[in-house]
Amino acid sequence: MPGLYAAGDAATRELICGAFTGGGSHNAAWALSSGFWAGAGAAQFAQANRLAASTHLRAQGRAGLLDARGQRMDSGALIKAVQDEVFPYQRNWFRHGEDLQASLGRLDTLWQQTRHAAPAADHEQTLRLREATAMLAVSRWMYRSALERTESRGMHRRSDYAGTDVTQRHRVISGGLDDVWTGHEHLGPVVEQLLRGQAA
Question: Which pTM value belongs to this model?
Fold first, then answer.
């Protein structure tokens, strides 16, 4: 997507870490390197694509920003509610389909509540609520992706699917806001070569 740059945990590390976490020096190297590349890329893009006065920007998503039909939502309470679903080991480390579905039910309810919340009182609270809403969106993508991968691989461990399935050597991609979708993306030749090298 032109103009969108990611670094650190928001950017994939699979080419240096595979399906597992980098840990220690790998994480530090990735944070520094990806931050440098993303910052340089963003600066170059901004210089080459200065917004004209006629440019129209469109907000993506409505949660906590546009609707005023409900009550105002506390961003701190929303963050705590999301953390309650993604922090416990029994839900997000040793994953099971039933537990994932139960968490998703609660997260989806939170999304609907946030989507219809009144705008925040000021610009600072608007920013905090949008940050909390982003955490909620990611948690819903994460658990729907986890349900889609019916195996254990790398950091993803399913207690109801403990083995690794060789037919699932693909990425699970997800997106959407009100309606979350998932799909498969086949690995590129570079990743395939890395996997063959690890197997050898």
Answer: 0.77
